[in-house]
Structure of Flavin reductase:
Amino acid sequence: MNYDARSIADMEPRKRARFINSLSGFKSANLIGTCDKNDNTNLSIVSSVFHLGAEPPLMGFIIRPNRVERHTLENILATECYTINAVALEFLTSAHQTSARYDRSESEFDKAHLSPYYVDGFTAPFVLESPLKLAMKLVEHQTLAVNQTELIIGEIHNVIVPERAVMPDGYIDIETLDIVSVSGLDSYHVTQRVGRLSYAKPDKKIHPLTKEGDATSWSAFE
Amino acid sequence: MNYDARSIADMEPRKRARFINSLSGFKSANLIGTCDKNDNTNLSIVSSVFHLGAEPPLMGFIIRPNRVERHTLENILATECYTINAVALEFLTSAHQTSARYDRSESEFDKAHLSPYYVDGFTAPFVLESPLKLAMKLVEHQTLAVNQTELIIGEIHNVIVPERAVMPDGYIDIETLDIVSVSGLDSYHVTQRVGRLSYAKPDKKIHPLTKEGDATSWSAFE
């Protein structure tokens, strides 16, 4: 089936939103933790976190205009810090609940039964339940002219993760932490590793790596 | 384990790259198809495609500086069009092979044994093997000041997808198309749906949806 621009534009708006949101493939599910100047906390689920660089360690994410994440944006601009907390299977429904439209005076931590967690010297709240927590400092913010979405870029200042998940070569086995993936607006998925693949070079055959990063033979890729 | 900014900065560079690239969670794996003014084709795997909006339908992705994707950037700027092709399990190793550093005169289609596919009136090549193909027109390009990465924003003009994967409510069941997810630099994963969750509202319990989008009871979420 080939959907052209016209047939997409003619879709009922909610159907189009589900359709277009499905096209970006499997996405990360993360909770953005913030607080305002009076330490009132806020939590918001996003599926747009992306890698921007390792040196310095940078990440970006998108906040949609006029959405519930508006409180998140205002808190980040006021405090210049936030946390990114990977969503795991264990608290998936709670994480999804944070997308509801709560008043500014209400904390999604309370409403979704998630636990704020603090680290000395960093004002934004982490999600205790998350197995992969990042402390972020705001580096750049811009409103994209094309549709008024907000691009937030931050530098990673701390990474809190169980040591057992960090492989000797630096790769983090996020699958072993039961971190979920999201597709579309509302579909959540667990994963099963097919394999790690060797660094690609011209005229050299790719070979599989073990989870730890060592070369080995593995029939699935022979 | 709490890795602070200093311990991250002190990591061996390749280890740090693997570590930081793991922090953005499960990512989409997509092949960007382009051609130059002389119809020489190019193909490059990226893991940074993200949703920007449904009306108009927009997507962004990141090109790293001085990387093999440089040919991709030059072609997009020259022709103002490109394709996004979701990577499926069946041609995963070929897709990974496109990350090798080929000369400009070499096409990754040939080198990775993937088939270019054309649609009348659109110059950029699709990947025939991909079950989810998008025709994109360049809308905005900017070099991010923070680390000289390139942000490419495009509008979705065509969506080529098997009709059986499009649910009545617009959601596309990308899992049924065997589309893979990537974590870190080199780990590929297949998925298993936990469930679709209802639109979250304050003071209303979330309930599961069927894959088709209808409400139902499902014990995993009771």
